[in-house]
Design goal:
about 50% helix, 2 domains, alpha/beta
Length: about 260
């Protein structure tokens, strides 16, 4: 039996919940056990699995830690250190998500290189001490943006930089379909077979940048500038269909499959 403990500060309940739920879901697939308890201002997530499944769990833990650092910690880093002129909310949301995903390949490499799962892991200490080169990389990116903040007062200049960031993100999905109804937007990932529902327009833009698809099929019931924003940002990757008859679609495969 192989065991590992991951500790997270008790006040970081959002990260602790994400890690626990992610690993618990995977543990059920491989016959492992994941439990958690709180002690001395830390939440401990304890993993026990058959020795033959150790390699698979290593990969899953690395994936989980990478998501925590690249999403939760990087978002907080940007919130603290990025100081840009204000623009419309959808643009600011897109810019933040684009920065989070910009050069993610290097971020993942630095995390993987420094992650040692042969001993218990304290997530915050790992981030603060082992990932100094990663934070230096983020600091350089933020400094460049802050130093040009006067130039980014212009909406056109701001959007040009946003588009540059998005154009240089790695393609992660071949094709997605987006549907609008009275509850907001829903995304159907053609490759993952998963639906993400009830998104606001800001959540939608953020999710699409995160997925960075090669092709976007956008079915709209109305124009709240979302389609225009996405078309301008992703250009020829977006196919827009306006239709007041578009209804909530439970079986997306009937539309998205050839």
């Amino acid at each position: 039996m192989w065991e590992l403990s991951i500790s997270i500060k008790s006040n970081d309940i959002e990260v602790a919940k994400f890690v626990y739920q992610s690993l618990k879901s995977f543990a059920d697939e491989v016959g492992a056990v994941v439990t958690c308890f709180e002690q001395f201002d830390n939440i401990y997530i304890v993993i026990a699995c058959p020795a033959c499944e150790k390699g698979r769990f290593f990969v899953e833990i690395e994936r989980c830690v990478t998501k925590v650092v690249c999403n939760f910690y990087k978002d907080r880093f940007l919130t603290t250190n990025l100081h840009l002129p204000s623009h419309e909310n959808i643009g600011m949301t897109a810019f933040r998500r684009a920065l989070i995903n910009f050069d993610k390949e290097t971020d993942i490499y630095l995390i993987s290189k420094n992650l040692d799962l042969d001993k218990d892991l304290h997530l915050e200490s790992f981030y603060l001490f082992k990932l100094k080169p990663l934070r230096k990389k983020w600091e350089d990116l933020v400094s460049l943006a802050n130093e040009n903040s006067d130039y980014l007062v212009s909406s056109e200049a701001f959007f040009d930089l946003l588009k540059f960031l998005v154009d240089n993100l790695e393609i992660c999905e071949e094709e997605i379909s987006v549907f609008q109804d009275e509850n907001g937007y829903s995304i159907k990932s053609n490759s993952r077979g998963q639906n993400v529902c009830q998104l606001t327009k800001e959540d939608l833009v953020s999710s699409i940048i995160e997925m960075c698809p090669k092709k976007i099929n956008l079915f709209c019931k109305s124009d709240d500038n979302t389609a225009g924003f996405l078309s301008r940002l992703f250009e020829e990757r977006v196919n827009v269909c306006y239709s007041k008859s578009v209804e909530t679609i439970k079986d997306f495969s009937a539309i998205t499959q050839n």
